[in-house]
Amino acid sequence: MTAPRVAPSLHGVLRIIGWVGLGLIAVAVSLSDFLATAPADATAVGPLLAAPTEVFRFGTDILGRDMFSETLHGLADTIRSALPGALTTLFAGALFGFVAARMPRPFALGLRGFMGIMAAIPALLLAILMIGLTARGWAGIAAGLSAAPIAFVRAFERAQRQERAPHSAYARATGISAGTLMRRDLVYEFTDTFLSSAARALAAVTIVLSTVSFLGFGAVPPHRDLGLMIAAAKPYLLHAWWTAAFPAAALVVVILFARLAAGLDEGERA
Amino acid sequence: MSEPRTILTVSELGVERAGANELSGLSFSLAAGESLTVLGDASSGKDALIRVLAGHGGRDDVLTGTIGYGDGAALPAAKRAKPPVRMVYLAGAAASPLNPHASVLSQLTQILARRLDTPRSSAREELRIALERFPDAPVFADLDRKPGAFTAPELTWALMATAIAQAPDLLIADHAFADLSPAAIKAAVEALRAEQRRIGFALIYGARGLKTASYLRGRMIVLRQGRVVEEGSFDKLASGQSHAYTRTLFKSLTKPTDAAAPRSATRGEPLLQVQGLDLRSPKDKGPKPRDGISFELRRGASLALIGEEGSGRRALVRALLGMERFAGGRVVMDQVDLSILSAAMSSRLRRRIAFITGADDALDPRMTLWDTVDEPLRAHLHLPRDLIAGHRETALKRVGLASYDGRQPVAELSPYDKRRLQIARAIVGAPFLAVIDEPLRGLDAFAQSIMIELLEDFRRQEGPAFVVITADVGVAQVLAEDALFLKDRKVVERGALREILKNPKDEETRRLIDAANL
């Protein structure tokens, strides 16, 4: 006898839409050099500050760069920096938090307290501080580390709930060791929450990274990520909206799909 | 003497939901002061009947047949007219019918005020008067707490008082006393019957097990897969069942009997030796009890720890397994003094202990059926995969789960399947001690009788010593030979269960035996 198959919930459908969207973005990023009509940072491709037309679908900027190609290259740069950052959040936050909850109690509580304090500091400030202490090339990792405290706290609480669950008490009563229980919980943590944690982390890191670049602490020209492109469009925003609108729209699309893939679960915040 | 007024007439009632036939051709009538127990499992159609009568059915239900209330004409069941009699629905505390975040008093007052169409102050007074009718019910002033602060019997009394305060013509009790101890069920049924005699309401009791039906007596309908299997008075059905299904159900009705044959379980070396155990916490500075708990359990023997919730049965087991420190005394398990062992060594010693419990959260809901059985073999013995698969198959066959999809998560299993899975996990562990904690709790009568057979088979084949935690002396007698009766964390009586049943000395022992006696 098997349980009847349950129709996917609205959340399930949204998750699928999110992952499909992220998949399409991944394809666009990997093929950006082929899809773009001009190389990255190629100036004087067209007239200066031309509005969107059939030739220049997203218009051009003050240096005559094709905004469609620039947005694609910017998206690729943003994602390439955000991916290691999201992995950093996953390992230094979610995974470490889960393991830390099983450490000796005083050590676990000390770590939980420290991470709780770090989580109270805005991730943006943390990221800027870490970039200041290292180098601008490490912006992705810094953004990942700045989003890690909240991921740590969430994973820590989940692990403690599992440890206190009645089924864990019954397992311990029949001699199942703490190590076996931790392995069991880690496997389910990985399979049950890894994908949504990864999507949440990607959304958070993308926001931090783009904001850091917008403020001038992130991407270094000639590499222009979406945050830096929006910052560069500031002087022309009122009369050439397309120079900021298309990079901003690309950023919104990445974050929206990542949030959908995470099941609209609120989590690590910038 | 005039005939009692007919309260309910159900004729050829059929219920279909989502294309599935849940109930068909059910007919019965119920007079004032009469009791009817509807017995069946989750798929029997009993829940559909209660849903329809209590007005909880949705638009998904396709109803056929007629329902008549009181002296009114029978109307098509599909019409869903408001009944002309005062009908009250009584849910069990186990179904958590109240909001956990609001006070019980405010919720019950609100229900009463709405049902009686009176101001809240009057409803509170009605509730207070109704509570005073039940000596075991919590006092009115104590009700101003959230549901979590009450025990299941206390909540049951409060819900019952709310129902009685409405002076019903027809009371529909939906597993109202499920998961209570026999003593608590007996007290609640006696109080309900007294109120039935006073008010004269008709009672329909939806039951999974036979315990409540055995106290209620009255009429009984046995349903299976939407059809009536057998019906008649409880006494008639108890004295002889014509249908094989009903016979299986009645096997679950354990009751103390001195005709039981002595067990032939081989009794070997001592497995557990307990000397002067003081169950208080080591930090407890109160006066030390004069006598601690002392007893011995030999290999293959069985001992029941009998008492109500809070009597110290589980605290005793936790102390026996070295999971909790205690104020004084000594526990020797398998020749090893637990007090000198580290936590890790205690854990190693517990590898050959199995737990089979009535708690549905005893197994990890995320694990698959196969992983749940494999885990003790993988974690303790590091056996190769094919050997593990062989042991698993044998165990699952023995409990009747071999045909299930092994990759199915435990969360998708029914309580009965989870209980059988616990036995399969215990079988592969080849334990020297099995702790059996209220193994029949919350199961329907059919599942209860199968569980008893499986536990007996487990003991016969693997031969572990049994420690049975229960409040039901009948269950204790089926699974154990010796008993400790506990109250307030103290042993009030001990010895061979058969002898205690013949001549109980303590008041608490007499009360528990009396509750299980039919």
Largest sheet of chain A: none
Tally the structural domains of chain B. Answer: 2
CATH architecture of chain A: Orthogonal Bundle
SS-based class of chain A: mainly alpha
In round numbers, the mean pLDDT of chain A is 89
Oligomer: heterodimer
Features:
heterodimer, A: 270 residues, mainly alpha, MetI-like fold, disordered N terminus, B: 518 residues, alpha/beta, Rossmann fold, 2 domains, 6-stranded mixed sheet, 17 helices, 35% helix, 24% strand, globular
Characterise the protein shown here.
The complex is a heterodimer of chains A (270) and B (518). Chain A has 270 residues and is mainly alpha-helical. Chain A has a single domain (10-38, 58-261), classed as MetI-like fold, CATH 1.10.3720. Helices cover 68% and strands 0% of the residues of chain A. Chain A is elongated. Residues 1-6 of chain A have low confidence and may be disordered. With 518 residues, chain B is α/β, with parallel strands linked by helices. Chain B has 2 domains: 6-251, 3-Layer(aba) Sandwich (Rossmann fold), CATH 3.40.50.300; 300-311 and 351-516, 3-Layer(aba) Sandwich (Rossmann fold), CATH 3.40.50. Chain B has 17 helices and 20 strands. In chain B, a hairpin with a 2-residue loop joins strand 1 (6-17) and strand 2. The mean pLDDT of chain B is 88. Chain A binds chain B through residues 1-3, 165-168, 170-178, 180, 184, 188, 192, and chain B through 321, 323, 344, 347-355, 357, 359, 361-367, 375-376, 379-380, 403-405, 408, 412, 429, 435.
Chain-wise SSE layout:
The complex is a heterodimer of chains A (270) and B (518).
Chain A: H1 10-30, H2 32-35, H3 67-100, H4 105-120, H5 123-133, H6 139-164, H7 166-173, H8 178-214, H9 226-232, H10 242-261
Chain B: E1 6-17, E2 20-31, E3 35-39, H1 46-53, E4 61-69, E5 75-76, E6 87-91, H2 104-116, H3 120-132, H4 152-164, E7 170-174, H5 182-199, E8 202-207, H6 211-216, E9 219-224, E10 227-233, H7 234-239, H8 244-251, E11 270-278, E12 293-298, E13 302-306, H9 313-320, E14 328-333, E15 336-337, H10 343-349, E16 353-357, H11 369-381, H12 385-399, H13 415-428, E17 433-437, H14 445-462, E18 465-470, H15 473-479, E19 482-487, E20 490-496, H16 497-502, H17 507-516
Parallel strand pairs in B: 3-8, 3-9, 6-7, 7-8, 13-18, 13-19, 16-17, 17-18
Antiparallel strand pairs in B: 1-2, 1-4, 4-5, 9-10, 11-12, 11-14, 14-15, 19-20
Helix pairs in contact in B: 2-3, 2-4, 3-4, 4-5, 5-17, 8-14, 11-12, 11-13, 12-13, 13-14
